[in-house]
């Protein structure tokens, strides 16, 4: 509400999820640096998280984006990781049908351990690959997204296709859930806390008013 200006801003926690090799690290590096990292270099990058501010319709939404590595097998991403997440980028690889089939299992994990109102965006990565390389059609991704009521888009970390758009989609949904209240141009995002009784996210300051 009005008069709520309580820095410092707490960033929204965003987690990259999906099977090993789908391009989580590549997508995050493309988003952060605007470049595509050769695969021989990827294993040595060792990203934990990156902060990035995304502007949505003039509103600044601060994201803290966590990469997962070596945790891609089910039941190995810790429950605390899920619980604290405000948003999830869930990736499969359009050249690998298994990673697409596994999305249902990932969504099962998410429904079980993440907050009920967690923002999810479904991504079919490696959209630059075509012809016989491609195993999953765009329509299959669209259908899966519709089935689970989550936005879907294809991306390419290699060409940059829809990379900004996918993170903006996350920020847009966070904003629509009340993540950011300020409109005076200052960085005045509220501390973002969970109100589990209402199963939705509210600003601590506003809740107490
Ligand atoms: P992660 O295990 O999910 O983090 O996946 P990586 O980011 O390590 O990528 C796995 C492999 O896929 C690497 O060889 C990347 O170069 C490759 N890769 C990632 N994104 C793309 C993409 O958009 N297009 C293509 N053609 N290859 C990609
Ligand atoms: Mg990785």
TrEMBL record:
Entry annotated with the keyword Nucleotide-binding: yes
Recorded catalytic activity of this chain's protein: GTP + H2O = GDP + phosphate + H(+)
Co-factor requirement: Mg(2+)
GO molecular function, one term: G protein activity
Keyword Nucleotide-binding: yes
Keywords: GTP-binding, Hydrolase, Lipoprotein, Magnesium, Metal-binding, Nucleotide-binding, Prenylation, Protein transport, Transport
EC number: 3.6.5.2
UniProt protein name: small monomeric GTPase
Organism in which the protein naturally occurs: Drosophila simulans
Covered residues, full protein: 57 to 265 of 265
């Amino acid at each position: 509400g009005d008069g709520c200006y309580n820095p410092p801003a707490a960033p929204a926690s965003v987690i990259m999820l999906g099977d090993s090799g789908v391009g989580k690290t590549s997508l995050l590096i493309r988003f952060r640096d605007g470049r595509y990292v050769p695969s021989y270099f990827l294993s040595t990058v060792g990203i934990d998280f990156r902060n990035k501010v995304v502007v949505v319709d003039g509103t600044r939404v601060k994201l803290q984006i966590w990469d997962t590595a070596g945790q891609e097998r089910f039941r190995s991403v810790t429950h605390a990781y899920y619980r604290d997440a405000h948003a999830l980028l869930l990736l499969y690889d359009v050249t690998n049908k298994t990673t697409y089939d596994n999305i249902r299992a990932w969504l099962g994990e998410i429904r079980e351990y993440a907050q009920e109102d967690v923002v999810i965006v479904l991504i079919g990565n490696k959209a630059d690959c075509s012809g016989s390389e491609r195993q999953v059609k765009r329509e299959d991704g669209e259908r899966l997204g519709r089935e689970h009521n989550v936005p879907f888009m294809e991306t390419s970390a290699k060409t940059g296709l829809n990379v900004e758009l996918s993170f903006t989609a996350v920020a847009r949904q966070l904003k629509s859930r009340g993540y950011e209240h300020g409109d005076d141009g200052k960085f005045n995002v509220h501390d973002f806390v969970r109100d589990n009784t209402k199963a939705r996210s509210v600003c601590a300051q506003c809740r107490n008013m």
